[in-house]
Specification:
The protein is mostly helical.
Length: about 190
Amino acid sequence: LSSISSYPNIHFVSKDMKSGNIINYLEKPMYYPYQVIYKNMGICISNVLILSPVFIVYMLISGISPAGGNVLRFVILSLLGVITYVLFDVLLGLFTFWTENSWGLTLLKNTVFMFFSGRMLPLNFFPEQLSKILRFSPFSGMIYEPIMALINGTGENGYFIIIQLIWIFVFYALIRFVFSRCRNNITIYGG
């Protein structure tokens, strides 16, 4: 799942700022965060098309045959998780309007994502209280919940779909707010 959304938004927003290309994007009639999101979605779709056959072959070779309902829940939760990840990444990318460098933000994002999404360790391995808190975070819906839906077909999936939809709305609102503030704070070094 983490391979699907591999486009480094933070780096490219920072690169646009440093090179001065941000002005070209801001002059276009399309809202800049949408441009970044749509570019990322195109890459995510192509990655799904490339990785889906590999996933299917792996499931056939390993003998895993989840129920149809589990696959549907997995697809829905995965889609919401990818959207959440992209929005979170774009939000952090907008902070490069102030930091002017993407390295620290990328390191922070990768560390948080690695630990709190279940990518490195399943959330069940964390202490019980921390695990409960993390299940309400947007990060659990990016890796852990879709995988658990595929493997276990847990009955809490509707609950996590609602949580992810809430986080998508929160990140979208934050992107709108942050971009309205950072448009006035453009410093161009190149160009």
